[in-house]
Amino acid sequence: MNRRRVVITGLGCVTALSESVDELFTALCEGKSGVSTIESFDTSQYPVHFGGEIKHFDVSQYVDKREAKRMDRFTQFAIAGAINAVKDSGLDFAKEDPYRVGVIVGTGIGGIKEIEEQHVRLIEKGPGKVSPFCVPRLMSNAASGNIAIQFGARGPCFAVSSACASGNHTIGEAFCNIASNRSDVVITGGSEAALTPIGLGSFCAARSLSLRNDNPPIASRPFDRDRDGFVLTEGAGILVLEEFERARKRGATIYAELLGYGATDDGYHITAPLPNGEGAAMAMRVALADAKVNPQDVGYINAHGTSTELNDIAESTAIKSVFGQYAYKVPVSSTKSCLGHMLGATAAVELIAAIKAINRSVIPPTINLDHPDERCDLKMDYVPWTAREAKVDIAISNSFGFGGHNACLVVRKV
User: Fold this and answer.
1) Distance, CA of 320 to CA of 151 (rounded, Å)
2) Chain segment 199-210, per-residue pLDDT in tens
3) Which of 21, 81, 226, 301 could form a disulfide with 332 if both were Cys (CB 3.0 to 4.6 A apart)?
């Protein structure tokens, strides 16, 4: 069976920098940081007081307040991103076969805020006071289900939960779904709202987070010698994927073509990557082979680049393994330096950034890179501090998660 071509026709996001994709990319290229002091709960007893908090999100701009009350914050983000992405795509689902429209949206953790709030009700008021909406709000598939309801989509609809690789896995599965003719359109991406008391406390206990309370905007420092952990953030990235010929015939704006998808696992440790980056390297190789693209054809790599010691070194090693000497020529940047780490949402937002880099011929920088870590290789081009004009025809977006999950996507200019 011939594989169908898959293109991206709609983009939507909710981030600490903006709820507009164009504004987000401009901010990334200007080196702005979305990291600031947390205001939604008291962090005085925590070792970390900051994160990428979305402070002025108003879900009533997207859905009825009564309806919104039945959603955890991560689902609200996903709905907002989906509404913006669908509007951007120009699709009218009233004219579509609903059984040919799918929704695949991932999350690393799901409705953790709902779990926290209902646990307090259970302890303070007893089981009779636990909300009947608790499960529909906390379940990981709530985002996919609510988006399907919003647009009347009746095709394949499910969630993928693979920690920080969730976004790339969901987009990859959506890609396969359309390529194999099971759907014509899929709304896909990732959403996360784990910047909560337990969420922050858990990562603090794991000693995963930066402790730069004195200057939060410089805390996320991928590939920098002085990095001390990642920055926990919240948000969503949603994309509309569509079969190429139908998108072309309806005159849709085509942002990029999704060419390849690679997924592996390290099979090594529940949180640490393989030190030699072998699993990540294989995911990139599989994605490039799937795309029928040579490493030398890649013009930009949006790195996972978490600002943690082990990940940054392993990813740099993996890139060198795949790209050889070309690893010293291809630009590699981490937009987590500006946005922090959105866990299950991060890969989707980063793919959007890679697509905009193709469209605008501008590569966003890795900010806060003052002293490149020699263990990450000083000869590699991490695009420090300043955005760069560059013609990018093909880009790769990497995403790696706890559990050893590795997922890589390849996109091309159309």
Assistant:
1) 43
2) 999 999 999 999
3) 301
Distance CA 3, CA 73 (A): 37
Residue showing tokens 């908090």: 53
Cβ neighbors of 304 (< 8 A, separation 6 or more) are 164, 280, 311, 315, 334, 336, 398, 399, 400
Separation CA 219–CA 306 (nearest Å): 11
| pLDDT of amino acid 2 | 87
Task: Decide if 157 is catalytic.
Answer: no
Does the domain at 263-412 match CATH 3.40.47.10? Answer given as yes
- Active site annotation includes 341: yes
Q: Indicate which residue of 13, 169, 304, 405 is catalytic.
A: 304
**Among 13, 341, 376, 408, which one carries the catalytic annotation?**
341
> pLDDT tens digits, residue range 384-411?
999 999 999 999 999 999 999 999 999 9
Q: Which CATH number fits domain 7-249: 3.40.50.1220, 3.40.47.10, 2.115.10.20, 3.40.50.720?
A: 3.40.47.10
Average pLDDT over residues 19-27: 98
